[in-house]
Amino acid sequence: MHNVTRGVNKTHTLSHSPSPLAGHPHRTMNLRQLEVFQAVMQTGNMSAAARLICITPSAVSKTIAHTELQLGYKLFTRGKGTLAPTPEARVLFEESALIHQKLDGLKRMALNLRQAADGQVRLAAIPSISHEFLPLLLERHMARHPRVRVEVRTLHQDQMVQALLTRGVDFALGFYEHPHPLLTSTTLVSGPLYLAVTREIWQRAVKARRQNPMSFLASMPLIRLVGEDPMCESIDALARHLGLSAPAGLQVQTSRLALELVRRGMGWTVVDFLTASNLDPASLTAVPLHEFAHAPLQMYFATSTPPGQDALRMLEMLPDLLHGVMATGH
Predict the structure, then answer these.
(1) How many helices (H) and strands (E) does the chain have?
(2) pLDDT at 117 over 60
(3) Among 102, 143, 158, 261, which is most buried by a count of CB atoms within 10 Å?
């Protein structure tokens, strides 16, 4: 019995000295104890922790008591209906949080790998590609592969890393090369960028400054994408070209919202070739920006886990569909 009390999972131990996780070689925590401890710290009581990790409250209580005995100090002080973490528990919680997150990621990856073998394609795309192109892709794919399940996520580029590395998605679509070192980027097609403005404002610009109508926009508000969206650089470059050294105006998260503001006459923005191909010419004008480099539409995947056969069959459809959209666009 004493051996059980002092026993340790020798394969998975936490021993990052000089934290409370270390010390005497037998006074360590195994992964199950860590999971229970984290659950109690997150929920604040034994019953809620038990529900969170799907075990009984008595099992939680016994695990905590066992862990305290192993470590040689209390993790919680008990009161009437209360459970307060000790200073040692707070330090332990902070230092073990990253390990717990990695374990959660490992669980998600294991589940995702099992689902990936079941005839399913999971993809992610930035909002402009999701709204402007994926409906066509999904329609054609379903007609060709009706039995393959498809799951689509709309994510911004900075959100794609976790989804790809944990196999939450097989591949992702966005513009420009992804900077993360563990992802591979492959160019599918490149297309021009467009200035988007209302038809009425553009007609006024052409009438007022026939030789250089774009300069007319220097006095109008710029609608910029917020954050690290790669399209920001192109928008800012055009703003500088127009003489706006410090672009002001509105900042929004998606091209769709930016276009709605443009449609209301609140300013101008820059959009990709997929978005431009779906603009309503009765209300909006898309002006090609020939002097700017084309925007490469890229496919991203985790370098360590390339897309499987079902995902590859979908990817094979992309170049022809994308070229078709470009041929019929603006």
Answers:
(1) 13, 12
(2) no
(3) 261
Give how far Cα 37 sits from Cα of 5, 81, 193, Å. 17, 18, 52
Residue entry with tokens 């609608």:
223
Angle at 282 between CA 277 and CA 287, to 5 degrees: 50
Q: Which residue, among 322, 327, 329, 324, has the nearest Cα to 299 in the 3D structure?
A: 322
**Geometric angle at alpha carbon 97, from 91 and 99, rounded to 5°:** 120
Q: What is the pLDDT of residue 217?
A: 83
Q: For 265, which DSSP code?
A: T
DSSP 8-state code for residue 214: G
Element (H, E) at 38: helix 31-43
Rounded Cα–Cα distance for residues 25 and 282 (Å)? 75
pLDDT tens-digit readout, 36-86: 898 888 888 888 888 888 899 899 999 999 999 998 899 998 877 678 899
Q: Which domains does the chain have, with CATH numbers?
A: 2-113 (1.10.10.10), 117-191+296-328 (3.40.190.10), 194-293 (3.40.190.10)
| CB-count exposure of residue 320 (10 Å: 0-12, 13-18, 19+) | exposed
Most confident of 29-33, 92-96, 225-229, 269-273: 269-273
From CA 147, how far away is CA 268, in angstroms rounded?
43
Residue 293: both structure tokens together: 């480099």
The answer, yes or no, to whether residue 20 has pLDDT greater than 50, is: no
Q: What is the dihedral of CA 38, 112, 163, 179, to 10 degrees?
A: 120
